[in-house]
Design goal:
The protein is an alpha/beta fold and 285 residues long. Helices cover 44% and strands 16% of the residues. The chain has two domains: 136 residues, Rossmann fold (3-Layer(aba) Sandwich), CATH 3.40.50; 102 residues, Alpha-Beta Complex (UDP-galactose 4-epimerase, domain 1).
């Protein structure tokens, strides 16, 4: 039986849908804090179970009978390590035979502000003694959805990443990799550095928006200070503005540019091109 945590989230839902194409629904467990939101999956035969990382007592019953677990990283920044440790402990107690964790690209060395929590979780997975697969995901192309849509109206992409590049892929690409790991053999005690096939710059992104929208969009590179000021003027809280500026700083330094090819290999096809992603995001405006 395969259990997916965070099954109500964007990636989790895609993983469950991928599993439904590969195996009987009754062998899939969708774990979530809000089971009522997954009633449609339950109607299709998926076992929907309540699991709250902040309430470890819910995890014993949620994880019962699972032999493969996809631990999708929590969105509770600052609390994730404790939450993930609770899930890892529950997995060990349930006798899980493989734990796959959605980490971040080069988690052991990345300068990204999100890196330490992922590194600490990876260490907890290794310390558990459970067979593991570390799915080190790079950025989702959907991370830029708001900027892409806003650029059609403003004619601008702003940032402070210079000519730095991002080897992003879609949520569907990363979900397909997780499905492959959960449903095929040969992934025990492996680390996969997952990213898109092609690294693109913000200027490249602006050019793709121009082609897709039929309106000229340009990239305006700012100093980090001016970038932060622009984000604050747009209404972002200071903490959020600081995070975005730090992401661009690390992008400029190459933290998201690596293209090792692991994702393409796992999913058995090229990753989704940036042009296709931009067109899809703009089609639902």
């Amino acid at each position: 039986m395969i259990l997916v945590t965070g099954a109500g989230g964007n990636v989790g839902r895609l993983v469950v849908e991928g599993l439904l194409d590969a195996m009987p629904a009754g062998e899939i467990v969708a774990a979530t804090r809000r089971p009522e939101e997954l009633a449609d999956l339950a109607e299709r035969g998926v076992q929907v179970r309540h699991a709250d990382f902040d309430a470890p007592e819910t995890l014993k019953s949620a994880f019962a009978g699972a032999d493969r677990l996809l631990l999708i990283s929590s969105d509770a920044v600052g609390r994730r390590v404790a939450q993930h440790r609770a899930a890892i402990d529950a997995a060990a107690g349930a006798g899980v035979r493989l734990i796959a964790y959605t980490s971040v690209l080069h988690a052991d060395v990345t300068p990204l502000i999100v890196g330490p929590e992922h590194k600490a979780t990876e260490e907890a997975v290794l310390a558990s003694g459970l067979p593991y697969t570390l799915l080190r995901n790079s950025w989702y192309t959907e991370n830029y959805e708001v900027a892409i849509r806003g650029a059609v109206d403003s004619g601008l992409i702003i940032g402070s990443a210079g000519e730095g590049r991002v080897a992003s892929a879609t949520r569907a690409d990363y979900a397909a990799a997780a499905v492959a790991v959960l449903t095929t053999a040969g992934h025990q005690n492996k680390i996969y550095e997952l990213s898109g096939d092609t690294a693109w710059s913000y200027a490249d992104l602006a050019a793709e928006i121009t082609r897709a929208a039929g309106r000229e969009v340009t990239y305006r590179n700012l100093t980090p200070e001016d970038h932060r000021a622009a984000l604050l003027d747009a209404g972002l809280p200071e903490a959020a503005a600081d995070v975005y500026v730090s992401f661009d700083r690390d992008t400029e330094r190459g933290a998201l540019a690596d293209t090792p090819g692991d994702l393409r290999t796992l999913i058995g096809r090229p990753t989704t091109p940036l042009a296709d992603s931009v067109r899809a995001l703009l089609a639902v405006r």
